[in-house]
């Protein structure tokens, strides 16, 4: 991995879909997939919302000024309530920024143009814009290496990014995840505890902290076979089912872990002060609010709780 970070030129032609309307049906393509290469701002609004009418044009103006370094998607929550509900949007206007398939920044309520410009400038730097010399490409390479199980390469890239930009929150969170992946929980905890106040509020850093909590907890559970045998003899052994979920999580079987916790909520949602539901929420934090498994599990959990 080269340490250079070459950026696209500031005068590059703007893409035709720089600002577009989106929907529940097209959110994955318009936001999640598009954010793999460039930060995407999502403006949740409604026709009846006065502050939305003030904020929207300011966002669009500054997005256009960024000349393609960021993109913008607008979602009318009245016509498209599903994504807004899954992201737990309580009021509008609400703005989320996504990069590499994850929420990385955001705010609620109308903002002065100076704050909007600072918000977009942060995203330009994060995404490898003109001031960032290919930083976004390096972040993507590191994420791919970590997903492939190569924590050494990933941590090397993240460290290079942090040398270039010491406060980069996605790289900081990525480095913590590298330590978690090799079970170096003490150093991961020490790193996360040293986060700056701004880093600590970042969605990826919050997710990394949740992932560390889960990794530490799952390290002490018994073998999957033993726990499966306990459940076979007594399907209402809730402690065994909870521990089995954590054993699955520890072995990388995220979906199986989620399903065991959902089953536990089905059988006894009040068990141990709703520990299964609370653990699912922790999973959602670690996976990220737009992860496909998070979205699926939230729907199933809501169906169980409100059936």
UniProtKB/TrEMBL annotation:
Keyword Transcription regulation attributed: no
Keywords: Disulfide bond, Electron transport, Redox-active center, Transport
GO cellular component: cytosol
Leader sequence residues: none
Pfam families membership: Thioredoxin (PF00085), TPR_19 (PF14559), TPR_20 (PF14561)
Thioredoxin domain boundaries: 8-125
Gene3D superfamilies per the UniProt record, alphabetical: Glutaredoxin, Tetratricopeptide repeat domain
InterPro entries reported for this sequence: Thioredoxin-like_sf, Thioredoxin_CS, Thioredoxin_domain, TPR-like_helical_dom_sf
Biological process according to GO: cell redox homeostasis; response to stress
GO terms for MF: protein-disulfide reductase activity
Top-level taxon in the UniProt lineage: Bacteria
Family designation: Belongs to the thioredoxin family.
PANTHER family on file: GEO12009P1 (PTHR45663:SF11)
Stated name of the protein: Co-chaperone YbbN
Species the sequence originates in: Skermanella aerolata
């Amino acid at each position: 991995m080269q340490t250079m970070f070459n950026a696209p030129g500031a005068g590059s032609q703007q893409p035709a879909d720089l600002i577009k309307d989106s929907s529940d049906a097209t959110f994955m393509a318009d936001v999640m997939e598009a954010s793999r290469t460039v930060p995407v701002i999502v403006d949740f609004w409604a026709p009846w919302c006065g502050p939305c009418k003030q904020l929207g044009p300011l966002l669009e103006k500054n997005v256009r000024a960024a000349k393609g370094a960021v993109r913008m998607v607008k979602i009318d929550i009245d016509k498209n309530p599903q994504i807004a509900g899954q992201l737990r949007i309580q009021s509008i206007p609400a703005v989320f920024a996504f990069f590499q398939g994850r929420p990385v920044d955001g705010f609620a309520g109308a903002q002065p143009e100076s704050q909007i410009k600072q918000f977009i400038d942060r995203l330009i730097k994060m995404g490898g814009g003109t001031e960032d010399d290919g930083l976004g490409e390096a972040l993507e390479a590191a994420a791919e290496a970590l997903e492939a199980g190569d924590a050494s390469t990933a941590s090397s890239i993240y460290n290079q990014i942090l040398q270039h930009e010491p406060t980069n929150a996605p790289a900081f969170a990525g480095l913590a995840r590298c330590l978690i992946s090799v079970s170096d929980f003490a150093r991961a905890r020490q790193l996360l505890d040293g986060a700056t106040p701004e880093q600590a509020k970042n969605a990826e850093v919050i997710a990394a902290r949740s992932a560390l909590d889960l990794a530490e907890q799952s390290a002490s559970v018994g073998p999957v076979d033993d726990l499966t045998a306990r459940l076979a003899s007594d399907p209402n052994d809730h402690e065994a089912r909870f521990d089995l979920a954590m054993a699955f999580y520890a072995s990388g079987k995220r979906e199986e872990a989620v399903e065991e916790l959902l089953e536990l909520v089905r059988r006894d949602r009040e068990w141990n002060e709703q520990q299964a539901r609370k653990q699912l929420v922790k999973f959602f934090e670690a996976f990220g609010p737009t992860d496909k498994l998070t979205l699926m599990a939230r729907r199933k959990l809501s169906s169980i709780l409100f059936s």
